Amino acid sequence: MQTSARRNEARILGHGPFSLAHRKRRRGPVFGAIRDPKHVAAAQRLAGAPNLTGNTAVEQNVRPRRGALVLCPVVESEPRILSDGSVDPRDLVMAFAFVAPPSTAQGDRHLVRFRAIDSTRAEAAIIDRDDVRS
């Protein structure tokens, strides 16, 4: 969680509260950088980066072959906070940063590829929280 006097907090689908990051789309539908350097450094250390040190909570979770995923709840404007303290999901984008463990490095080969668009539905996102797929 971020600590700031300007921090916005809200519950997300019954969980939390979580700090909400504010970002604007800079290039059409694309956000600018989402990752906060202090969060990325902790994720890199969890994934085994030897030149970094973390706090006690980070250090006790460093393991060989461990990666890290940082999830960032992002809002583009002032979010609508519902009566129960939850953010309206329509106002929320979940961004992430992924750090693979060093043991997975294999030259120029891509370890993980992410696909954000289903080419058969060019105008639709692949993952819709109401879309149930097997």
Could you describe the 3D structure shown?
The protein is globular, with a radius of gyration of 17 Å. It contains 2 helices and 6 strands; from the N terminus they run ββββααββ. Strands 1-2-5-6 form a 4-stranded mixed β-sheet, with helices on one face. It has a two-stranded antiparallel ribbon with strand order 3-4. Helices cover 10% and strands 25% of the residues. A hairpin with a 2-residue loop joins strand 1 and strand 2. With 134 residues, it is of the alpha+beta class.
User: Per DSSP, what share of the residues sits in E-state strands of 2 or more residues?
Assistant: 15-25%
Helix content: 10-25%
Instruction: Give the class from helix and strand content and strand pairing.
Output: alpha+beta
Strand segment tally: 6
The major sheet is characterized as: 4 strands, mixed
Task: Tell me the overall shape.
Answer: globular
